[in-house]
Amino acid sequence: MNLLEVKDVGKTYGSVIALREVSTVVNAGEVTCVLGDNGAGKSTLIKILAGVHRHDHGEYTVDGQPVRFTSPREALDRGIATVYQDLAVVPLMSVWRNFFLGSEPTVGFGPFRALDRKKARETTKRALADMGIDLRDVEQPVGTLSGGERQCVAIARAVYFGAKVLILDEPTAALGVKQAGVVLRYVAQAADRGLGVVLITHNPHHAYPVGDRFLLLKRGVALGSYEKADITLPELTRQMAGGAELEALEHELREVKGP
Fold first, then answer.
1. Which residues cross the membrane (predicted)?
2. What pTM, to 2 d.p., does this model score?
């Protein structure tokens, strides 16, 4: 099922073309990976999908209907949740307080309403367990969690609050090999639950195991869009690394140094 699609989407900032004629699709139960180095246009595409910026050209559709979001709230109301690198968590607050931040459950009525701590704690623990995340204590400050665990809490939070499309901005960028593997496992699990996932990364070795579709960006232009069956990891890596440019550099160095 097609949840989200962009066709020939473009964005300019004055005379600077940040994105030009980029197209991709996000289906339920699949992971669409957007790959590219710094300055490739990944952040611009995220901001368009998440409702931070409007696109200037092309078409953006959600559930088959054209949209022009004016705020992230509008995107969220349509089930598009974005988890940025900084995660928007408060390190000194507990895991469950961060889980419900801004949407806390309450008991009572009117001026007598109070935070329902028991429900919040139980719901957080259950929602994390449903995603396969077993935390020792949801009372612990979120700042005491590893980077991978924090990413997983943010993913579980988005799933719990009804996201249909989950956009993950470089979730493994600052993580070690083991922690990156943990996060990628939960990315795959989110797709297994029927969500459409957009994984933004510069690492093809992280994208390929979980990805169903790969969009390669360079300087705001799509280098290519591939189904998993149509591209191998070595070829994806070669294109990401600028294979032709590296080959030219290798040839140039060989000429300088001699045989």
1. none
2. 0.84
